[in-house]
Amino acid sequence: MKKKRMLALAVAGALGLGILPPAANAVSTRDIEQKRDEMNSLRSKRSDVEQKINEAQKTIESLRSQQRQVANDIQKLNVAIDETSGKIRNVSKDIDETEQAIETLKQEIAEIQERIEKRNEILKGRMRSLQESGGAISYLQVLLGAQSFSDFIDRMSAVTTIMEADQQIIREQEADKALKEKKETELTEKRNKLQADLQELKQLQAELAGQLEQKNRLMADLKQKEEEEHDHKMALEEEKELIAKQEAAVKEQLAELERQKRAEEEAKQKGRTYTAPNDGGSSSEEAPSGGSTPPVSSGAFTRPANGPITSGFGYRFGGTDFHPGVDIGKRAPVVPVVAAADGIVFRSYYSSSYGNVIFVSHVINGQTYTTVYAHLEARLVGEGQHVRKGQVIGYMGNTGNSTGPHLHFELHRGGWNPGKTNAVDPRNYIAF
């Protein structure tokens, strides 16, 4: 935000250079044409800024639309994550139930195994009987050994019963083995499937969580961009306001030049010499509070305030910070600040970085200069006001981005710009 306000401040500085006090010398047609060109340039700049404001608003609306879409995506992802979590709980419950069923099955399998082992013992007994008889006794011999037909029928019925029992034992043995194998296979497959489903759901949950994190980061990024775009738009709106003020001031200045030009022509026709009226500015060597002001020196500029130089012009802190002016320390309860030269105030306001700040434009021997008075406790002059060299314009303070009470004073040979490429060392122009 500070950078945006500094940008607006830069524009203010650059635009303010066109506001100059009425010339003491004769007004030329070229002066009037230059002022008209300046007005046209300001109109063009204002139109460009308005277009940029519209573009910024469209960008903000686009960012908001994207945020709504991302918010919708986030809502869907949250629903999907909740559903997946529910499925995971259900599958985990099914796995637990399957594990319990497996434990029950193990008991059933143990019982089946016990039956199988008992039948194995019976079958082994049959085999031992056959081995002990040497294989000589057969069911046929049992039948032929009958003493009567009734005995034959009884023996045949007994043999049939034994044979059926043996067959039943074998069938039950095979059925139990098949049942055991089937149950083991079914539960194993079910458990494996549930484990696979659970793993798949957990993987899906992780993917959804990752997508949600990405969407949240995207939302944060969109909100940050919207905030930056709002700052940009605010800076543009401030720039537009500054241009509008400048345009009105230039229009007034143009009217003054045209009026002065007509007065000069009328005076010339009457054989008189035209003298420009006083602009109403007053020079003061004492602050209204009674505090001392620096003596007004000869030359183009005078010292803006009493006090020692606490920070000079140029790079500081090992060449990492460029200081475009000088700092004058506050060594009294009230320290007045005066205009360094005759000029016109083109910006007087509160800046987040400069604090209470005044920008003054000067024209000295045809050269434009700009002076800046920052971190003031109070400002006594407003925009468009003409000031005289040595006139009190404010009081030294500690406002804005300041580490202690002082005056930050800048001198620019030309206009003020964001890069401060026109900044010069005030000590080369003023005897401190």
From TrEMBL:
Residues 109-183 form the Peptidoglycan hydrolase PcsB coiled-coil domain. GO terms for molecular function: metalloendopeptidase activity. Residues 259-305 are annotated as: Disordered. Residues 259-269 have a biased composition (Basic and acidic residues). Residues 280-299 have a biased composition (Low complexity). Keywords: Coiled coil, Signal. Residues 32-133 form a coiled coil. InterPro entries: Cell_wall_metabolism_enzyme (IPR050570), Dup_hybrid_motif (IPR011055), M23ase_b-sheet_dom (IPR016047), PcsB_CC (IPR057309). The keyword Magnesium does not apply. Pfam families: CC_PcsB, Peptidase_M23. Residues 322-415 form the M23ase beta-sheet core domain. Residues 1-26 form the signal peptide. PANTHER family: MUREIN HYDROLASE ACTIVATOR ENVC, PEPTIDASE-RELATED. This is Peptidase M23.
